[in-house]
């Protein structure tokens, strides 16, 4: 079942989307493969601490966060990966590691790698490890209002 916050956002925002069900997966690559979505079109959510505050970074599954580049893009603030214990409680309606890429639903900023903006559609975890939401990128951008940055490099 979709995260209740995500479900409300998509329905109230009248956004077109489809839900894809798949066998339980853990990594973004596994999930993209399970739903037959190219890793460049699957948006993974990476949790960071930027200047000590939780932030969400959304990037193609085929990429890895470049913390140095992100720090520069954010004005030189310290940036590090967040431990699951630091963010687990921030997503009470989601399974750990399956948060949808809508930071504002959880009171945190969301930064998106600009390579996703060139995709017609994106897919992302729906708050659990067995469902994915697929929607037009422009609709995602309208609802999430992310800050666009070049954040990642190929793995």
Automatic annotation (TrEMBL):
Domain YbaK/aminoacyl-tRNA synthetase-associated residues, every copy: 22-143
GO function terms (MF aspect): aminoacyl-tRNA deacylase activity
Domain of life: Bacteria
Protein name: Deacylase
Higher taxonomy: Bacteria, Pseudomonadati, Pseudomonadota, Gammaproteobacteria, Lysobacterales
